[in-house]
Each structure stands twice: as structure tokens, then as C-alpha cells.
Amino acid sequence: MAYPYTHEKEVRILSKHFGEPEARTLDGWKARGGYRTLNRAFEMGRDKVIEEVKASGLRGRGGAGFPAGVKWSFMPKEKTRPHYLLCNADESEPGTFKDRELLRWTPHQLIEGMIIAAYAIQAEQAYVYCRGEFFETTQILARAVEEAYEAGYLGQDILGSGFNLDITVHCGGGAYICGEETALMNSLEGRRGTPRVKPPFPAQAGYMGMPSTVNNVETLSSVPFIIAEGAEAYRKNGTQESPGTKLFCVSGHVRKPGNYELPLGFPLMELINDVCGGLKEGRTLKGVIPGGSSVPILNAEECADCELSFEGVIKAGSQLGCASVIVMDDSTDIVKEVRRMVGFYAHESCGQCTPCREGSAWTEKILRRIEDGRGTEEDLDTLVEVTSQMEGTTICVLSDSVAAPVKSSIRKFRGEYLARIRTGEKVGAA
Amino acid sequence: MSEARKIPFNNPGWAGNTGEFSLTEAEVRGDEYVGRRPPAGGHPSGASSYPYMLAEKDPDAPLFEGAYRERFDKLRTRYPDARSALLPTLAMAQELRGYVSPGTMDEVAALLDLSPAYVRGVATFYTMYNKRPVGRFLIQVCTNISCSLCGGDDVLRAFLNNTGTELGETSEDGLFTVVEAECLAACGFPTTVQINSRYYENVTPKDVPEILERLKAQGE
Amino acid sequence: MADQQSPKTVTLTIDSQQVTVPKGTTLLKAAEAIGVEIPHYCYHPGLSSPAMCRMCLVEVEGWPKLAPSCKEVAQDGQVVFTQSEKARRQRTGVLEFYLVNHPLDCPICDQSGECKLQNFVFSEGRQHGRGREPKRVLGRDDFGGDVLFNADRCVMCTRCVRFMREVAEDERLTVVERGNRAIIDTFFENGLEGSPFAGNIVDICPVGALISKDFLHKARAWDLDRTPSVCPSCSQGCNITLDTRDNLVQRLKPRENLEVNGWWMCDFGRHNYEWINRGDRLEAPLVDGKATGWPEALEALLSRLDGAGGSGKGVTWAHAPNEEMGMLKALMEHLGGGEVVYRSPRAPDETPLPGFPPLIRRKELAPNDRGAEIFGFKRVGDQNGEGGLEGVAQHDGVLIVVGDPLTDVGEDFGSKAELFVYLGTRGSPAARNAQFVLPITTFAEQEGTYTNVQGRVQRFWPGLRAPGVARPGWFILGALLAELSGGDVPTSADRAFALVTERAPEFSGISYRDLGNRGTPVNHPASVSGD
After folding, report:
1. B28 → chain A, closest CA residue
2. ipTM given for this complex
3. Of B98, B125, B152, at which residue does a domain stop?
């Protein structure tokens, strides 16, 4: 069940046991059918496991949507150096709160998925990079890993297969940028968490320069089902291009915010009005950010026919990202919220690339000035041009994340900016 | 705030009163499952995760002795080189001393055979390493987009008013420091506040005095 | 055969020009090969390449995004544009971001005139700024040693951090904070004091963030003349330039030579230039204490040499160029042979640059110890370059001292000599007993060569005008020798070098043309002794 609200339209695969304290224990998880896929995976062999995951079409759940099976197949077939599996639990994208739920309710699901993934990519060392703020969550995960060691699911010669795996829980220090896969590797190496230039790609030179694969928590948690039930079963939900179910994180101005597990392709308005109980009394929809603050804002018109799949959201004019749906009703002060989002990026920018380092701070300052009523109409043109100068020119896509809310909001909510500039009037919230 | 989501304060960590779940705070936080983790860190795989936040900080605590030394040694075995252990080591030093001072950076550098300048560069990159001492309770209020849409700024103001502090400053009694946090990844439970190592969810301005009282009374 | 492509090279097109480069060459270096300069900050050939300044982005046909040319490896058949609309617009955009917080310090900034930000903005930046927000102000910081840091001007290329980490292997600098608050700093009060190579970060800083205290506000870059030379402070022979103005050396800068010093030099040599500017120089020939012109002085000397019967002894020093040493040797041989000794100070140890192994600040604190060895001169004296001249002080024959300032010898030095000729740059009290005191030039005022510790002969050029009528030592000695032996006067340094190569098999076959401005090893370098 999703948490803290459930809905009958949910298809509960990953979240079936959210809210059940027993499910996080090893015995509880086994009683619920857990850990039965390991022997099956060992029987299938590495190549077939990768083929199965490829066939399932599982796409990365961390925001990029890159097919997981394909990513695994980039790892060297012949192992001449240590391989690493890195689980990205540095959930920091504003609006996203699914990995925390997966970690605290079903940590063994993740561990099971990691064992299968590590087996497939021939990794004997795996790290779960948890964001530093997740104190309580990390301790639950650490206890679960400990239980797995005690039961022989981790360590040497797992279930007599000859496969060894060590998982280490690693706590970060508080930096959004470490959710980017190469920055994560740098941070894991004990460096400043700055992204690296690609190529080389992690599968060639990753953690410590060794072949590595970085996968999101949700992606890895999806693996046991695929091995247990098969790629076809996984494809029963979702669309052709975006198969499977997804944990949608809905927040903002809905009555029942929370995580809901639904098939990809689910209509956005149905999610808001039906599953989440709709907007609050007397409110109308102003806009939705469908994939976490890094993607363009959709206005109410664009939301009407939007389907929540990777291709569907692109069609509507945005991106699915990590499927964090932030709902904004007509009480929203768009100028303030965009300023807050850009301020977040300015705060979290690693500072390597000049366009992002200077541009994000500059953009925030201009937006603050507009928010305080001291903006001009030229500022709007400057904002669009400056953010366009940032896009696509940097090592990672944080610049693009600054550009997305700014450009989409100026294009679609220009009236609000103009009102603020001309009369200082705050549209929306007081 | 919507009537349908009026949730009494004393359920930090879960939104239990939705009618769908009836869980205790301990069940949601997993207190029983985690148990009282040993200071020496239990199994080496989890040596990096904090056993507990120390109530008393000692800026001169040695790095490291006793159980912490054991934990540090376990930690070192999990990584192919010393540098990789830097972030958890800094976190352990902060756990003992309350913040990461220049002297602490120097000592950690010596422990891991890195240059002090390098350690400073890494420590200042990450938000969670306090560069100055903070109050007994570090109150981090999320004001990012999802919480902002649901009144996060009001919660922040409530904390500032009720503790009598300026943003980032420590109260006179040394108990509270209030700062803004970036998204804490609990957006479905606005407004989320992190106090030391705990998450408090669904916080509204009128919950704030109660939270502060509870902190003072229970010490955590 | 020549135009068949071996699999070890790739051929690509850059700005409509074809170029073939070895596999693994970056686009930036491939462009360099055909003279196309791609603007950049963070890239430096001697350091790792983080591709973070975003200045070097070029357009590659068929690629949706621009590629950082300092990292992107050239591929066969690629078509690259560095001046396309897209590439130029991107550079203009990035330059605007650099100027958002960069202070308009050009009028007071030392880097002005040799500043990469100035240059690139002038050629491709926006005409008018549109930033209305107050700029970030961080002020000035003393990093210790010779380095001042103007944080506001920093463009965060991190060349300095990478130099200290990768080349000096003494990680004293770091980036603190992140995002727009990021800045370079030391570990609190532990600065650069004591680092023997920290001066290099001033060279590689593309803007005026890191500047030399020694050079602060001394001269404008465009007023300086730059002359290629060789550092005289030790036997490593780092290639340098003399930056001069008003006939004074204002500073020394390293010059690229991958065989000797890479792109670097040590602080000891860098700051040891003030002696070159000293004004207490010999300016005219003195005969028996009276100033005369060269013709009279040389005629008088020649007639005295003719009549002189006693054996000869010579003293030189390790600052003398090969030409001077060679001419002295030839002259001594013509006068019937006679030992030539030299003094040379030594440091107790050497200082290597770990990240560039060829470069070591050597124990020999003079540039031409190897030359002296090649010519068979004997080293005397102690580690301070003093003493050792007892055998020479009371010599009763012909005594020729070239270069050595004789600051430590007694009043009666050379008083017994039948003929005492002193060629020097400065007057020396010990030369009071010399019948002939002839003014010569320092290395900075003449052409010549030094042989470094690795046995590499390197040319240097004059950056200053000689005072008075001082002339190069090889010229004087060469003229004397020519008169005495009936040979030709060496009228230029390369003629002098050609003459000395006849005397030393190590130099045979080498001419000035071979030396270029980066030098060449002597023949049989194994025969050059180590120390």
C-alpha cells in the first residue's frame, strides 16, 4: 500500500507492504515472499538476468529514465578489475520522497534487488549512498543489512552460489548535487561532490576509476519482481515505452498528498482529482510540476490531457523526471515559488562550471528583486536569455534545472510577473 | 490548511490520523527494530550510520578512543582507500565534538593521511558539517517548494519567534539553533522539520510551542 | 607511404582545415597544431583537465551539445567548428557570466595587459553589461610567501589548486564552500610560506587574482620587454624570460622547455634577480688605475703579454658562459698552459619538483658548473664558494681572473704577479693589484650559452644594455687570443661558440642553429660527471 493514503486504483508491487512494521524485518520480509528470487537469479546466470531486466524495459527511476538493463550491459563482460554497484539513495530532488519510504518500510526489497544486480554486473562490493539527513532511515537500512549478513544473504558464498557481496551503508554530508551519478562517485571517494565529465562513463571508469553502475533505490527495488514474475508480467502495467509501475510522489495543494504506486501512463488529472482527493475546497488548478522541481511547469491547460509516462509528459511539454508531482492551485504565488526553486539550485550548485555558478546566483538575485517589487520588464528578457545561456553548456544538468522553472513560468505565467513588476501585486497567496 | 488533513501534533514521523493506518510513533520510526545501536557501530557494513546523536558535545573529545576507535577501524575496512572514509569520519568527529573546527579538520587529516587544506575543502562543501557550534537542538525547517506551498515560511517564522532567535543564531540558553533546510524528502507531509536526527512531519505553526516544550523536557 | 594513414593517427577537419594528429590527441591540441587557438582558462598542458571553465566548447558536426575541446579526444573524420555562430555565442555567454562578479579592477590590476579575461572579453564578450545586482566582495588575502590573493578577481579555474596538488605535491590550496560562495583558500593561517615552488601559481593564474608581492605595482605588462634567457641561480638551467623595463630586470618568468623545467621554475631562482640590476659596475677599462678606452687598454695589455715570461694561472667562476670559459682556456693554452680554477657555491641539498621530475633545484648554485668541468677547470674553495685561492694569490707569473668578484681574498692577492689581468663586472678591492681591470657584461647583457647539470647547452639573449663600454668576456679574450695567435676575432657569440667547440669534444658538431631557444644535449652526455 502506498503511504500514508491508499487508493484502489493503485497497483501495489513495490509499496505493497508500506505501513507494515513487520515488513522491514528479515523474517517478516521472508514471510511476505521475500528473498526467494536469489536462487532463481543464480540459476538463470548473469547474462540471462541482464536480458530479463532489459526485456522488462525497466527505466531508471532516479529521474533520467535510462533503461536499467542496458546500463548493466555496459559493464565489462570480462572482469579484470573490481566492479562496483552503487545505490543512489541521495534523494534530494524537491518534491521527491519515495526512496525514503522504500528504505524505511521495505529495506530488504532493496537489498534483494541489489544482490541480484550486483550478481549480474559481477560486483562484489556495493555501497548504498544515503543522504546524510536520513539518520533514522539509514539506521533502519543498516539494521536490515546486518540481518541479511546474519542470514547469509550477504558476505561470502551467498546461498552456496560462489557469489560474494559486501554492502556498505555510506552516509553523505548534505549536498543535492551528490545525487548526480558521477558526483556521487566523487563524494563516495571522499572528495568534494563535483560531477565529472562524461566520457569516460561510470561503466568504464567509475568509483576509484573502476567499472561501476549507479542505480536508484526504486530501480533496484523493482528488480526482485522482474526476476520472480518475469519481464512479461512487469510489462503488464505501464506503456510500451514506459513499462511498469511507478511510485508517484504527490505534494502541494492536494487533499491527500503522499506516495501512490500506479502504472506509468496514468492520467495526471485523474491522479490529482481522484486518487489524491482533488484540490482543496474552492480552489482551481494553476499549474503542476510533474517531475520534481527540475522540469518545466505545466499550466492547467497542459495538464488536462497529460499522461504520466516518460513519453506522455514530453508530449505535454515537460519531463517525467522522478515523477514527483507538485500541485499548485490558484493561491500559489508563482514568482515566489520560482524564486525559491532557483534559490535551491543556487545554494546547491557545486560551483565548478561558470555558467551555473554565476548564472544560478544571478538568476536568484533578479527573481528576488522582482519578488520584492523592484523588477523591470527587461528583467524578464534578461532572465530568459541568461538561463538559455546556461542550458546545455555545463558538465551536469543543474543549469538546465535552473532554466526549466524560469523559462516555463515566464512563458506561461507572464501575467503574474508583470503584475508584480508593474504594481507590486502578489497574485495568489497573501 | 485543509480541514480534511487536520492532524494533531503528537504524531511526528507519520500521518497516522488518515484513518488508514494506526501506527505508533515507535513503529513508524522503527525504534524497536533498530534498537539501541552500539557505540562501536555493530556490523561494519553499517559503521557509517550514526548510532545516536550525543546529547553532550565535547569540543576536546579525542579522535578516536574506545568504542569510537573501534567504529572508525571498522569503517576503514569498508573502503579501498583512506580518502573514501573522509565523510563518515568527519561525521563521527562532529558527533563527538558538536561541530567541525579547524583543529578537527587538522586531526582528521592526520588520521587519514590527507592534507588539512584538502579536508577543509571537503568539509566546507557539504551542508551538514557545522563550522561553528550550534545549540543543543539544531532545528532545520524545510522551506523548499512543496513545504513552501503549504506554509513552510510560517512554520519557520514560528520557530524563530518561539525560540527568540535570528536565523542561524543560537538562543541565549544554548538550546536552539534554527536554520532553513533544503528539501528533506518528506514532501507529502508538509511542513517537515528536522531536529537533530529526527524528522518531524506535518508541522504547523501552532504545533511549534509543543515541540519545543517536548524537546526541553525529554532532551531529544 | 607518407600520405597513407597509419592506425595510430586520426584526420579531422577544424575550421575547414584538415589536420592529422596522433590518436588520443584532444581537439584543443589538434587545433593548436594548425595554429587555431581555442580560448580556455582551466586547461593547462602541465595539469589535469577538469573541463570546468566551459570556455573551450566547440561545435562538432552532428552533435547536439557543444564539446569541451580540452577533454574531447579527436576522432577520425570529425568536423569541428571553433568559430561557428553557436560556438561564439556560447563563449560570449560564458564571458558574461565571468563578468557578473568580476570587479572592474583593470586600472589597478597587475595582470592588465597580459590578462586572459581582458583579452577574451575584448575580442568576444558583450559590449555592455546588463548585471544590475551588487557584486560579491571578498577582498584581498595574503596567502603567505610572495603571493597575494584578490578573491574578487578569481575566476575559479582551480589551476592553482591543481598545481599545488599535482605538481608541487604539497596540497596547501583548496576550494572552500560550493556554488557561488566557492573561493580558493589555504588551510586557515597555514599559507604558502616555505613552499619552494608556490611562485608558479602566479604565472598560471589567468587573471589578476594571484599576484606577486615582489612585482606589485612595479610595471605595466605592456611596458615590459621580454627576452629569452636561462636562470643563473643553479645548474638546472630553467628556461626563463627576463622581463625588463628602463634597463632593469623587473621580474623573471619561466619559459616552456619540456626537457628541462616544463612550464615551471623555483622561487629561489625566480626572486634572485636583483643583483642583475646593481649599478656598482665597472664601466671603463682601467690600466694601472687610470681609465682609458679599449684600443689603448688592449694594446697595452698585448705588449705586456708579449714580454711576460712566467707561467700562467687562471681563475674563473661558474657564472661564466661556455664561450668565455672556452676563450679563457684557449688563451691559457697559448700562454704555455696553466691551471684554471673556479669556485662555485653549493647548497646542502636539492629541492625536487615532485610532479615534474626533470626539474630539481640543484645543489650547484651557479649555472655553468658543467661547462667548467667540460673545459677541465678545477673546482676549489668551500661550499660557500669562498677560499681555495691560496695557490693563486701569490703567483708570480701571469694571472688572469675572469668574472669571480674576489670578495673574500686578502689585500695582497696578485701583488706578486708579473701581470695581473682582472675581467669583472664589479670593482673588487682585491683587484687593486691588477694592472688591467677590464669591464665585462653579465649574462643578462650578452648572448652566450650555459651547460646545465644534465649536459644541455642552452642559449640566452641580452635583455639589458651593458653599462659604459663593458663587453662580453669572450669578446675581450677572443680579441686577445686572435692577436696573439694570428687567428680571427670572434665578432659574435656564435662565432665564439664555434671556436670553443673545437676545444671540447662534448660540444663538437653543435652550432647555435642547433640550439634554437631550447638547447640541445652535449655529445656523450654520459661523460659529463655527476655530483
Report:
1. A21
2. 0.94
3. B125
